[in-house]
Structure formats: structure tokens, C-alpha cells
Amino acid sequence: MKRKLFLLFASFFLGYSVHSIAQESLHISIDEAKEHALNYNKTIQKANLAIQKADYAKWQSIASLLPKVDASLGYNNYLGHKMSLMGTPIAMNPEGSFTAQASIALSGMQVVGVQLSEIAQQMSQTSALSDVLSLQTNVTNAYYAILVSEESKKIVEGNLENLRKLYNSSLNLVKVGMAEQTDADQLAVQVGMIENTIRMAERNVELSYNTLRLLLGVDNNTPLSLKNTLKDFTNKESANELLATSFDMTQNYTVTLLQQTIEMNQKQVRLNQWAYAPMLTGFYQYTKKTHFDKAVGFDMTPPNLVGVTISIPVFSSGERYAKVKQAQFDLQTAKLNKEQTVDALLMEEKQLRYNLTSAIESYELQLKNVALYERILTNATQKYEQGMISSTELSTISNNTLSTQSQYISALMDMLMAKTKLQQLINKL
Q: How large a percentage of the chain has pLDDT more than 70?
């Protein structure tokens, strides 16, 4: 956690100065993308500001326990007025004064207030770490989306190349009378459909890149390329290692925030209980007076003054008692919320592990299906060129192959998303 907090503060101080420089081409790995996002993403920058604000709020609470010193300068002119004391007139001459007062107030409520501010600071840090985890999750998903989109585009481009060759062969067969024009026309339609699919795939690739650029905090025109390939993330051993990783509930930021909420509610109970206790206030005051151009007149202000006050709450018509009870109810609710969330997370963990296992199995099955249908399509293409099957049969096999490839891409994305969700839950991104 300390390392992540260091990254948070480092990103805050470095982010503004670096980001002002014109963006250059980025060739980036997934780990570098996560780090880059920490430096520039505005959500993380706002989280850092929240941490600093909470830190100053803590010091504000601590300052309430420390002495305070105030000073003042004054000038009084009584415009010639004289005060009579037992028939004797006493001049009220113009005077200037300097007063300095040091005071301190102590109560149990102030101590608990400092403890509350410390918990609030911890909660802001935990919330910031949760934002970091969410950002890392989004960057990972965007990175995967680019790789999967490019894989899908690559597959479709391969189909288009093969289909164009077949279409050209079909035209030659038509010329020599070994095939009908309708056969070539059917292939031409398929070529057009795949060309349209490629254009859609290209738009999906660009959209995925723009999503990652947004998360990285760079301009949409910044050239961006990826270092990692799909092979880096489709390794079965790494997936099995993830499945074998235990779920440490203390590393889950949602649970941590709920525990900190419980601690805050406990302090709220104590805060309201301290309302029954007395408050001690003490002060020291120094005053210096100067009379201008005339003799010293009547002056009853002592140069030094010390005072102590104890304020004792006596009766509040049940107001303090009601506040204590409300705080206790909030504490019980916070404890129940944590228990409920822990139960839900344990259930979610089991579901996510099941989802990942099923996604891996589906991916491996679809991988085999793609290889099988590609062999079938290759065989069918050879038969069509030899006049052994019709263009309709070839078109059906081609469509089945495209469908299988689409299912493979879907299974690939499902597996990567299932992997990310489990990593996010157990905080292993």
C-alpha cells in the first residue's frame, strides 16, 4: 500500500509538468500504460487533491488542541470627559493600548475530533487507491480490446485475401466454361461483405485506441502502438496461477473502506458521549496602556490577567442522549453493511473463478473449432476449384467459418475480461 501511495503522490507532482510537453509517439507495454495513466489521468489527480485536503483537515483538528495567541492595538479619546469619584473629578485622558492574549481550550470532544480527522484521512487514501485499481482495470481492458480488435481484423483480412483469390479463380473458370457467372457473382457479394466487415473492424480498432488514449491522458492524434501481444495474456499457466491465488479480504479496498467507516462511527459514539463531560478553558492576557501628552488618568485595567473556566453541561432535555443513541445505531448499521458486503464478495469470488474457468475452456474449444473450420474451408476451396462442389456449398462453409471465427473472438474477449474481473477483486492487477 505504501508503494501505491508513493505512486499517487509522484504522479501528482510529475503529471502537470510532463503533460505540458508535446506528446510524442508511444510504444507501450501494459505495465507502462498503467504507470502512464497514473501520471496523467484526471481522476487520479483529483484523488490526490482529496488526500491533501484531508491532511489539512487533520491538522486543523490538531490545531484546536494547541494554544492560540491574539494581539490587538487600540486608541480611545474621551473628548475631555471627566469621571467623578466621590466628588473628585478624574481626567479621562486619551490613551493607546496593546493587548496580547494566549488561550487554550481542552475537552474530550476535541481529542476525538482529531481521531475522526485521522480516520477521514485514511479513508481518502483508501478511496484514492481504489481509484488507482479502477484505472488499472480500465487500462487493462482497453489494452485487451485493442489486441482483440486487431486480431479480429487480421482474421477477416486473411479471409478476404483467400476469397479474392477464389473469386479470381472463379472468373477464370467462367471464361473456360467450367463455372457459371452466378457462382462468380455469389463470391463477389461475399467479397463485398467481408470488405465492409474489415471497415467496421478498422473503426473498432481506432475506437479502442482512442479509449486507451483517453485513459492515458494523451491527445487523440498521438501515435500509439502496443508492445505486448495476445500470447502474453492467453497463457494457460498464468491463468491457472491466478485461479490458485487466494483472496485476501484485507486487500480489498471496499472492505477496507467499510472497516474505516465502522471505526469512524465508533468515534462518533465517543464524540457524542464526551458531550456529557466538562470543558476546561484557560487564558493569559497582557495589556500595556499609554496616555498621550497628559498625566495618567483613571485606569482600572491590570497589565497581567490569568483566567480558568470549567464549563459543565448539566441538562439538555435528552438531546445528548438522543445523539448518542443515533450514533450507536449508525455503528450497528455500519457493522451489518460490512458483514453483508463480505458475504457478497465471497460469493462473487466463487462466481468469478467459475467464470474464468469456463471462459478458458470455451476459448480453448473455440480455438480448436477455428482450426478445424479453416481446414474444412481450405479443403472445400480446393474442391470448388476442381468443380466438385457448388458455389452455394462453398458459401455455406465460408459463412460457417466466419461464424466460428466470430465465436472465437468473443470467447477470447470473454476470457480476458473474466481474468481482469478476478484480478480486480483480489487486487492483483
A: 93
